[in-house]
Fold:
Amino acid sequence: MLSVSIVIYGPLNRDLAVTLHSLDGTLSQFKRDGVPSKVYLINNNAEPLRLGELARHGFESFGAGVELELIEGHGNVGYGRGHNLAIERTRSDYHLILNPDVEMSADTFPAAFAFLAVHPEVGLLAPSIRGDDGELQYLCRRFPTVIDLALRGFAPPAWRKLFARRLARYEMKDQIGPDQIVFDPPIVSGCFMLFRTAVLHQISGFDPRYFLYFEDYDLSLRTGQVTRIAYVPAVKIVHFGGGASRKGWQHIKMFAASAFKFYSRFGWRLA
Structure:
């Protein structure tokens, strides 16, 4: 019924252990009901990952009823192409694209599937996302201009304050909140994307031309062309991730290269 893909790169850490533990917990309802689920762990590191290493980082195994498949040996092919290795394999009804820095609660999946059961027109569900500080993260987006991205990702706090109204519109703060369901946000975050698998297969998953950054923007826009997207605040997660500007110049260069590919495909908007 459900498959999940998680791409890992770099050393194993506490965030991944938290992600796997919380995933096991929210799958518990499926296990009790005898519904099978499968987790694909895609290792983009050059070195193979022995599952025993996960135990040393605080994670032992999923319980009965959850199959774990390790995909590796392909090297660092990028975030989207890594997920595609699982997407092309799975024959599930639903597929979750999940970051290795996300914590879910026990009712994350029950709330998500309760919504999808009564909204068959929705092919992609996005959750309410909070940081580890408890603050709501506004990760639904309108189509970005170049200025929006520059301000959001790289401007000092004083500049972001000066352009607060502009950024609030880009981040859909006029619609996104703790209670209101929002249909058809143009762009949703790639840290948690719950798809009907048939939709993912229809659009052939991620565009492999993106190595890192903007692959979720591209995927969201293409998804919106074939099905409806819904932001469902009853589905809650915690996200520990940070932006490109906080990860050094190499990430800034990858961000700029992916932005160029994104705008070249969907059209440039400066201001």
